Amino acid sequence: ADQTYISFSDGNRIPQVGLGVWQTPNNEAAPAVRAALSAGYRHIDTAAVYENEEGVGEGIRSSGVDRGDIFLTTKLWNNDQGFDSALKAFDASLKRLGTDYVDLYLIHWPSPHRGLFVETWKAFIRLKEEGRIRSIGVSNFYPEHLQKIIDETGVVPVINQIELHPDFQQKDARAFHLTHSIATQSWSPLGQGKLLNHPVIGKIAEKHGRSAAQVIIRWHIESGLVVIPKSVTPSRIEENFKVFDFSLDPEDMAEISTLDSNSTRIGPDPLTASF
Ligand code: NAD
């Protein structure tokens, strides 16, 4: 079965499952990207701070898949926030990636203590107007940060990439996104692996003859989320993409819904993060 997409408010669309490459050095990123593209992925998620944009670019170029068929995301690191510095950081990312546009550029964190995310957003709007970014979005933004950039620029991000997994389901953020036609993208969708041994997930996986990872990825898909599981192991990369030929039952979705504790972040709280 074919992969699925989520439509953006700007008319573009994003493949619902992508490969995450956090904590993957250049020499591992290139083969991981090639493995993903050969398994059928057409969406790669990197960031300047991952220090692997060169490896990602090399993986894309050596894959044999046309750049135009690939949805490539990168992110602006916090210390490059500000209008001029964002423009400069974007040029540097493109150069490292070895491409002349990205499909999606994200402000990595609101970093509210810097007070620069509105200026940064204005630079993103400029870059989109210039055609060097197809779509612009944010990451780790709370509704109050989203509201601020919307109020000050009138331009709504197409997506917000936030920590989201079955025991941290972000229902309030998702409700806000829905009212503003902002897509939600799940980072650490597998809870960095900690949810793979959960008994409820295991029971559902056994029922469908699937792996725990596939069940969790399917939960994100059927919840209307964009999901970017990370692996550098080719067999797992393949497994994580073989999720378009089965579906969860309504009672499975309901049961996973009850796993939400709404308190167990793995990563930092974007409101108080000091970086
Ligand atoms: P994840 O939830 O994707 O878990 C990844 C880990 O799960 C892997 O290291 C591996 O150990 C395990 N795993 C993956 N597939 C498996 C399988 N099929 N079977 C068994 N184990 C498996 O965690 P993540 O890497 O933190 O998040 C995914 C991506 O999200 C990142 O690579 C990055 O692209 C993005 N991310 C973004 C932010 C942000 O601030 N925007 C923060 C963290 C991560």
Automatic annotation (TrEMBL):
The record marks K75 as: Lowers pKa of active site Tyr. The keyword Ribonucleoprotein does not apply. GO terms for molecular function: 2,5-didehydrogluconate reductase activity. Keywords: NADP, Oxidoreductase. InterPro entries: AKR (IPR020471), AKR5C2 (IPR044504), Aldo/ket_reductase_CS (IPR018170), NAD(P)_OxRdtase_dom_sf (IPR036812), NADP_OxRdtase_dom (IPR023210). Residues 18-259 form the NADP-dependent oxidoreductase domain. The active site is at Y50 (proton donor). It is an enzyme of class 1 (oxidoreductase). Its EC number is 1.1.1.346. Substrate binds at H108. It catalyses: hydroxyacetone + NADP(+) = methylglyoxal + NADPH + H(+). Belongs to the aldo/keto reductase family. This is 2,5-diketo-D-gluconate reductase A. The lineage of its organism: Bacteria, Pseudomonadati, Pseudomonadota, Alphaproteobacteria, Hyphomicrobiales.
